[in-house]
Each structure stands twice: as C-alpha cells, then as structure tokens.
Write a structure and sequence with these properties.
Blueprint (H helix, E strand, L loop, with lengths): L14 H16 L2 H9 L14 H7 L3 H9 L14 H8 L2 H9 L11 H7 L3 H7 L6
Helix pairs in contact: 1-3, 2-4, 3-4, 3-5, 4-6, 5-6, 5-7, 7-8
Length: 141
C-alpha cells in the first residue's frame, strides 16, 4: 500500500479540512460555544482565520456571542488580532452594539485603541458614552 503525498505549498486544503473549517466558522457565527470549545480542545487552532482574516473571535464578536468569545479567550484566542481590513473584534462589537461582547473582550484583554477605526473612536462616533467607560475606565466621558 503506497502513501499518497500530502498537499504541497500553494495547494488548496483538502475538501474535508475546508468543510471542517466551514463548520467551525459557522459555530462561531451561530453562538455554539460548547461545540466550538470541543473542537478547539481537540486541536482546531483558537486563532483560525478565514479568507478575510477574520478569526473565530471576530466572527463571534460581530454576531453577538459573548459566551463564545469567553470560551475562545479561555483557550488562548488572541482578542487583538486584526482582520485583513485592519478591524479589531472589540471595534466590531461596539459597531454592532454588542455590549456583553465588548465587556467579554475587554475582560479578555482587548486593546480598545487597536485597529482602524478603534473601538474608542467607534463608541464616540455612535455616542456610546456607556461603552467609553468600559473601554477607557480612566477616561472622563
């Protein structure tokens, strides 16, 4: 029995790997914290990114899933990783008005001035003085 060579540099991922990645990204978008945590515990990278540079944390944050964000943070996900457009998860959560997610990200070490626009700039733009307090506790609003 001969062994087939694996994919080489520049080759696309095998269909089964691409399908698994698609399922994992859907778990982040849909808020399936338990299943996603199990996959990460089994070896899926906590900082897996899609073709736009969006991490699992970014997708969970943008879709309002604080529990998923907390599960990923607990497994070492980088809450400050910017996507290909230079956007941070916390700025996306502020933009979407996901207050619980903003708090989960800040608790997980999110930098409120990372990316462009920053989470602080986004909160100011939308008049979210309450989130400015969360993002910059020492700042007087």
């Amino acid at each position: 029995m001969s062994e087939q060579p694996g994919p080489g540099p520049g080759d696309e991922a095998p269909a089964d790997v691409a399908e698994l990645a698609g399922r994992v990204f859907e778990m982040a978008r849909n808020g399936d914290a338990a299943s996603l945590a199990a996959y990460v515990d089994a070896g899926v990278p906590a900082n897996l990114t899609n073709d736009s540079g969006d991490t699992l944390v970014m997708l969970a944050a943008y879709h309002g899933h604080a529990e998923v964000v907390r599960a990923l943070v607990a497994r070492g996900a980088d809450v400050n990783r910017l996507n290909d457009r230079g956007q941070s998860p916390v700025a996306g959560a502020v933009f979407k008005g996901e207050d619980d997610v903003v708090r989960a990200l800040v608790d997980g070490g999110a930098d409120p001035v990372a990316g462009h626009p920053t989470a602080v700039d986004t909160a100011r733009m939308f008049g979210r003085e309450d989130l400015l307090t969360v993002l910059s506790p020492s700042e007087k609003t």
